Fold these 2 entries.
Entry 1:
Amino acid sequence: MTLDSMFDAGSPKAETALTIRRPDDWHVHLRDGAMLKAVLPFTARQFARGIIMPNLVPPVVSVADAASYRQRILEARGADSDFQPLMTCYLTDHTSPNEIERGFAEKVWVAAKLYPAGATTNAHFGVTDIPALAPVLARMEKIGMPVLIHGEATDPAIDIFDREAAFMEAELIPLLKRHEGLKVVVEHATTAETLDIVREHRRHCAATITPHHLIINRTSIFQGGLRPHLYCLPVAKRERHRLALRKAVTSGDSCFFIGTDTAPHVRGKKEAECCSAGVFGGATALQTYIEVFDEAGALDRFEAFASENGARFYGLPLNSGTLTLHKRPDRVAVSVPVEDEEVVIFRGNEPLAWSLGEIRR
Ligand code: DOR
Ligand code: ZN
């Protein structure tokens, strides 16, 4: 990692540039079809690899599903891109340990995603009884394949702001105890208490943290009126949790890494009577993360969070090549067109302090 402070000829202003090993996004929703083509360039511009979420309709449950989805992503990425999709399998009540092992052995997928049934977008085929998944998780433990968990309770009687905490106590902690050798990624952690649980089990547990949960708290969703484009699951929590997330990522702690959870939905699905959950953060993710590190005086810790911790946890090689980010004001478009609709970009048309620079392969 190199940090350069340069004086532009004729300009009295110092410009800082940070060059890091190329980063990865360990949690991406790319969707399919026209949406895939529209959003993939943003992820591919920022990241060398991405863990591709399997919550398509229908979900990616078989080795064949994952192989053909991977092929569609490769076709959509364009000839000049080297973006590598890392595929995942969607766990259901009917997942077979043998199919899981076959996809992993054939290097079609690198992990499996556990959605509690009904927890979020396209999670209705998810798992209804997590302890009953033990044979699948035991096989994953044996072969070293990580499980990626959407950690929210699904009982509609539980307050939505408490669903992550309820899941951690009722499901995650017992699961971590039942499977002490299983690699577990707690996806999009949103509470201070979740971070503590992850740290405590760091020997086999890690967490991704999104850019939007570092920027917004639950009040942001209601600031001046209802803001559907800030609604996602898990929903943003109180300010104290946002501050704990910022502290966790900028601490340099190796059990936390990037997972943008970029989750595009067209404007019509967001500005609707029943708004879909998801923030499209893919176009401003690195600019947002680096701003958080800069504000914390922790730029020296950014590379580990962006480019090392995740790969090490998954047991994958670090990327070669570099990406440079410049402390230079930037602004991205407000939205991206998808056929005759559009997807609103998180922090689109807002002043960003950092901009993306050169990629060296
Ligand atoms: O807000 C969310 N959107 N959370 C999820 O877990 C799923 C995602 C999506 O696929 O839209
Ligand atoms: Zn997600």
Entry 2:
Amino acid sequence: MIEDNHSFIFPKGEKLSSNWFTGDAFLTPLLARDRNNDFALGSVTFEPGARTNWHTHPRGQVLMVIEGKGWYQEKGKAAQAIKKGDVVNIPENLEHWHGASASDKMVHVAITNYKGEENVVWLQPVTEGEYEKVNNNQ
Ligand code: MN
């Protein structure tokens, strides 16, 4: 595993809540919303197998993958493989999840826009069955 000696761009940060994430996911906040920037900016590290719950963003989200390999899936569609260098533009109010693949970690920077005081609406976990189906169809 090359990544053991790899220097990552941003610190791994603090472990994220298992209420909204499955497996080991970590966040380093990079920039809070301010008077000019109506979004939160953060780096999220997903260890292999880790992923978000299903969720929506009231004004969308942009992901920039900066390390590894993972998945982005919109409800009712096939999952898309994502890897270092990919940019994902997620529309508003679209149910989706993102995370690592079963065998690789994945790190993305997330730009998450606000509507009022809200930038995410958390839904149900991605089940083991849903996740296995995605990983076995690659
Ligand atoms: Mn999202």
